[in-house]
Amino acid sequence: MTLDAIDKKLLLLLQKDSRRTTKELSLQLNLSVTAVYERVKKLEREGVINRYVALLNPKKVQRAFVVFCHIKLVQHTKEYLTKFEQEVKKLDEVLECYHVSGDYDYILKIYVADMEAYREFMVTKLTTLQHIGSTHSTFMISEVKNTNVIAV
Fold it and tell me: What is the CATH number of domain 65-139?
């Protein structure tokens, strides 16, 4: 699907606040409500828009301690990779997991309440996963940029 200038502006507006009504969007895009509605539905059908979510404030839900955990597996077999990925998806504390190149195999972004909660998570959940050879944890000092907006 090729995105035109109006689609791109619409996507930007929705990424900044997906609760905007089609009427509000139509005023900003200088289109009819029906035209905006049809564009949004097409973007959803084509998979450009995957879903709509509420973004929580981690401090308000006691999950403001952010850890980036680098994982190295004992071997790089398909079986080990698949098993690790299946298991890590079940961990609620892990919000993001990336298979990466370099010194480590995976980078996890973990949200917990505090250092004690992270230690508990490591001891009772993460290190019980099979095929982990080593871990390296880095703790967030402050958030410089965190956005959900993809420029199109």
Answer: 3.30.70.920
